[in-house]
């Protein structure tokens, strides 16, 4: 009886591609799928042969996810990982989630340290590293025997990475905004600090492009969270004629607290995505958002982990950069 490995060898394709065709996955080119299924039929391959994979030793992967005010991000990362795991169900793979608070980097460090020091089976770790220096120091001694993938935060050329160019998100937001404003319109920029993942890069990218385009910037004004930002906005909006507000962190929470009169006469573009940003777009209170595809980030991370565990990559380390999405009412999912 022919095997998936033999099918892959005959067609010059990967075993994963063969499995996708056999399992009717949408993530395969129609012409490739047709070619595989034609050979499957000719050679009499039986789908239940994947039992050989199920009988192999289980691989265990730990997924370190972060939780924040934006629950959408956490949910979509989890769904992406689960979606890929479902597609690769013929592999004997278990994924164990460990969720920590985005505002408590040390909590993540301690949980990772405890795991690495345990006698548990660890074949792979997917992690959104909050404290880059401490996490890198922790995992360095294990790089030869554990497969690591960092998500959204790049750590090292030695470690596989899946994420979005957040600085590019900020630059795109500024470029879009430039096209909607008059030359003298004032843009207020509020800096709500670094979330250890994206907010610093959103701000840097936005300011870089805004300065190139000679945007009339007020700020950046440093604030510390939603309440402090709202208090400041109530004061400045009475004194200044502000045409747009850019906020690198907590934007959705802050903008939702502003009156409809203020929002609907402004031209605001955000970065990132969440249920409240979706609501703001649908209610025409902001024009658009520039965001990472969070589901695809989780999906690609799990997909890459499967490849790393079940294929021979040699010493090459993959870095997958996903393109930002510009989301308006018309293409909002």
UniProtKB/TrEMBL annotation:
<dbReference type="InterPro" id="IPR010982">
    <property type="entry name" value="Lambda_DNA-bd_dom_sf"/>
</dbReference>
<keyword id="KW-0804">Transcription</keyword>
<feature type="domain" description="HTH cro/C1-type">
    <location>
        <begin position="2"/>
        <end position="50"/>
    </location>
</feature>
<dbReference type="InterPro" id="IPR025997">
    <property type="entry name" value="SBP_2_dom"/>
</dbReference>
<dbReference type="InterPro" id="IPR001387">
    <property type="entry name" value="Cro/C1-type_HTH"/>
</dbReference>
<protein>
    <submittedName>
        <fullName>LacI family transcriptional regulator</fullName>
    </submittedName>
</protein>
<dbReference type="Pfam" id="PF13407">
    <property type="entry name" value="Peripla_BP_4"/>
</dbReference>
<dbReference type="GO" id="GO:0000976">
    <property type="term" value="F:transcription cis-regulatory region binding"/>
</dbReference>
<dbReference type="InterPro" id="IPR028082">
    <property type="entry name" value="Peripla_BP_I"/>
</dbReference>
<dbReference type="InterPro" id="IPR000843">
    <property type="entry name" value="HTH_LacI"/>
</dbReference>
<feature type="domain" description="HTH lacI-type">
    <location>
        <begin position="2"/>
        <end position="56"/>
    </location>
</feature>
<dbReference type="Pfam" id="PF00356">
    <property type="entry name" value="LacI"/>
</dbReference>
<keyword id="KW-0805">Transcription regulation</keyword>
<dbReference type="GO" id="GO:0003700">
    <property type="term" value="F:DNA-binding transcription factor activity"/>
</dbReference>
<keyword id="KW-0238">DNA-binding</keyword>
């Amino acid at each position: 009886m022919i095997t998936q490995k033999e099918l892959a060898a005959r067609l010059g394709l990967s075993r994963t591609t063969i499995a996708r065709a056999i399992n009717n996955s949408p993530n395969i080119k129609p012409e490739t799928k047709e070619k595989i299924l034609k050979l499957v039929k000719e050679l009499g391959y039986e789908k239940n042969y994947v039992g050989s994979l199920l009988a192999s030793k289980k691989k265990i992967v730990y997924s370190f996810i972060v939780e924040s005010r934006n629950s959408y991000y956490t949910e979509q990362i989890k769904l992406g990982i689960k979606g890929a795991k479902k597609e690769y169900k013929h592999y004997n793979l278990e994924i164990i989630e460990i969720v920590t608070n985005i505002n408590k980097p040390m909590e993540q460090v301690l949980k990772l340290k405890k795991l690495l020091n345990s006698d548990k089976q660890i074949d792979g770790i997917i992690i959104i590293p909050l404290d880059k220096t401490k996490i890198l120091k922790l995992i360095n001694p294990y790089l030869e025997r554990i497969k690591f993938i960092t998500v959204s935060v790049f750590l090292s050329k030695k470690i596989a990475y899946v994420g979005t160019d957040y600085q590019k998100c900020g630059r795109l937001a500024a470029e879009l905004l430039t096209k909607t404003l008059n030359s003298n319109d004032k843009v207020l920029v509020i800096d709500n600090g670094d979330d250890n993942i994206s907010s610093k890069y959103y701000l840097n990218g936005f300011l870089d492009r805004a300065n190139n385009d000679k945007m009339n910037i007020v700020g950046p004004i440093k604030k510390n969270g939603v309440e402090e930002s709202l208090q400041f906005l109530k004061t400045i909006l009475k004194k200044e004629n502000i045409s747009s507000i850019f906020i690198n962190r907590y934007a959705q929470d802050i903008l939702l607290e502003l009156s409809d009169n203020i929002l609907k006469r402004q031209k605001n573009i955000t970065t990132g995505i969440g249920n409240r940003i979706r609501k703001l777009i649908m209610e025409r209170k902001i024009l658009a958002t520039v965001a990472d595809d969070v589901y695809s980030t989780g999906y690609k991370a799990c997909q890459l982990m499967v490849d790393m565990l079940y294929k021979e990559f040699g010493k090459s380390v993959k870095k997958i950069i996903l393109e930002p999405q510009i989301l308006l009412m018309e293409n909002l999912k």
